[in-house]
Amino acid sequence: MHHRVKNNLQTISSLLSLQSRNIEDEGAKKLLKSSQNRVISMAMIHEMLYLREDLSKIHYRSYILELVKYLVRSIKGNSDNIAVDIDIPDLRFNIDTAIPLGLLVNEAVTNTLKYGILNDSKGEIFIQLKKSGPDHFILHIGDDGIGFSKDLDYRNSKSLGLRLIHNLSRQLQGSMSRDLSKKGTHYIIKFKEIGL
What we know:
Mean pLDDT: 82
Number of helices: 5
Low-confidence stretches: none
């Protein structure tokens, strides 16, 4: 079943890619590429599930490494300017947690690569995940890019990515806040594993 779902998601991704070739408007092309990356982030989870012996849990560190590498290549090309620092212990999440958490990381990293670390600038992305209770976790995602206004609120933002990060945090029965004391953009996501 996971193999079929992954194949279907990859078909959707291919259709989005084909559609974008016929569009001349750069803004519309970027929107399709963002949608394609969201679909691929979900397809990766299903691929990992059917390739592993345990069909119920995702090895999260491997997934995030693969996802971030894919996003850097997709948005920045083969640039060596982006350093990635991932600090995730050997945690495994079920699919109900893995998909919204993966989409959340996808949005945060995509925003960093598009708006935080501009053009060919050097930059670093930080992702740290730690356990804070039996089924509670804290995810730190940050970058050393240009950041965005301290006054910007996801509730009145036109940024779909920012609104998705907030909504996905809520889907994980958690909360999102920003650490404004550091350079760049830094999110703190508190959440719990769903479906336990």
